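Run log // design_07
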């Protein structure tokens, strides 16, 4: 496996046999649009977070991109980090194995350029550098540890076309395993037809990184039998953390006046949407881009907070792996809806990885107008 550096690299030249086979295929398709997409370069994005390792491989399709492969694995890299300050041997083993699978997929798909990032767990762990060196040695992938600011920007890039342009401010919420990124996007600049925007520089007026995510909050506020009290303890901890970060008054007047809306990019909000829709299994096509009433999102969140782990696990869109951590995300969503009231939440099953892919594919291109969305009279899919 060749070295995979964060900045990416050109793919190796194909063998003569491979070149001839690909040329015959192209001639056979007549050089049409489908063939161009088939033979366009492949790009990859890896997000190694506190709880999950995720990979997307895609081809440029003009104004968008087409996913050709993906991978997601719960590795629990940050498990126990809050108490020990270190990544455990077990979690590192699981993460390295997941990264090895990612490397294999990238090689088989002949990826041309890539970006592979690590977030909160590797930022905080005292043995983070040691772990990164092991990943490089065993998989060939050089992980780039990104800052919370960069993490926020990439998440916004990934879902910018879901912004409601009738509002003035959009709060993009990315709940991770170890932290929660909040980005306030100036929608007025997106509406300005005389302004040029670069997708890799979205108009973020303010941002904050809360040092709590579904893993860290679950560990800091352990579950106990009195579910009502436990859920309230979590919400109180979230409020306290927001005030400690000094962001509790940012654009609150805008939201209270009905001129703001929220976009949720995390697994928490997509899970809540799937539960609300009573999906028999998670269906991205029905969740991504959904307009979700905030009141419904909070109602589902509080219902999940009142259940036992076994009861939560019975939900098709959750399962046993995520039942333990879901309530922490529910508490975060609940408090954010309270502090930044928005009638609707736009659900985004996209974010950091999609933002990286957009950055890779559009690097060096001229500024362009960002396509955005407007709020329908009634939400789709029954939300």
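design_07 sequence
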């Amino acid at each position: 496996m060749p070295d995979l550096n964060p900045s990416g690299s050109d793919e190796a030249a194909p063998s003569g046999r491979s070149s001839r086979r690909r040329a015959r295929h192209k001639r056979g398709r007549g050089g049409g649009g489908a063939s161009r997409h088939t033979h366009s370069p492949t790009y990859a994005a890896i997000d190694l977070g506190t709880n999950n390792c995720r990979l997307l491989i895609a081809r440029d399709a003009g104004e968008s991109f087409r996913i050709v492969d993906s991978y997601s694995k719960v590795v629990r890299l940050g498990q126990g980090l809050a108490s020990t300050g270190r990544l455990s041997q077990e979690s590192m083993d699981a993460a390295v194995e997941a990264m090895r699978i990612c490397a294999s997929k990238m090689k088989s798909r002949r990826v041309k350029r890539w970006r592979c990032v690590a977030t909160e767990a590797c930022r905080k762990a005292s043995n983070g550098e040691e772990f990164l060196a092991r990943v490089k040695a065993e998989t060939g992938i050089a992980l780039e540890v990104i800052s919370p600011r960069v993490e926020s920007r990439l998440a916004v890039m990934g879902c910018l076309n879901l912004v409601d342009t009738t509002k003035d401010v959009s709060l993009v919420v990315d709940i991770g395993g170890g932290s929660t990124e909040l980005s306030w996007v100036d929608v007025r600049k997106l509406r300005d037809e005389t302004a040029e925007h670069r997708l890799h520089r979205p108009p973020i007026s303010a941002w904050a990184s809360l040092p709590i995510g579904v893993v860290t909050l679950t560990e800091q506020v352990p579950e106990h039998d009195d579910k009502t009290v436990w859920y309230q303890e979590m919400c109180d901890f979230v409020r306290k953390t927001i005030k400690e970060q000094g962001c509790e008054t940012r654009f609150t007047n805008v939201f209270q006046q009905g001129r703001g809306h929220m976009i949720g990019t995390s697994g928490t909000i997509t899970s809540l949407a799937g539960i609300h829709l009573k999906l028999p299994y998670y269906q991205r096509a029905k969740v991504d881009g959904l307009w979700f009433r905030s009141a419904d999102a909070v109602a589902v969140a509080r219902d999940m907070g009142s259940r036992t782990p076994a009861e939560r696990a019975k939900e098709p869109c959750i399962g046993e792996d995520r039942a333990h951590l879901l309530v922490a995300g529910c508490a975060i969503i609940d408090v954010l809806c309270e502090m930044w009231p928005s009638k609707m939440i736009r659900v985004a099953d996209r974010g950091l990885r999609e933002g990286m892919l957009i950055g890779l594919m559009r690097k060096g291109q001229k500024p362009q107008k960002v396509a955005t969305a407007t709020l329908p009279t009634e939400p789709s899919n029954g939300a």
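The longest helix spans residues 89-108.
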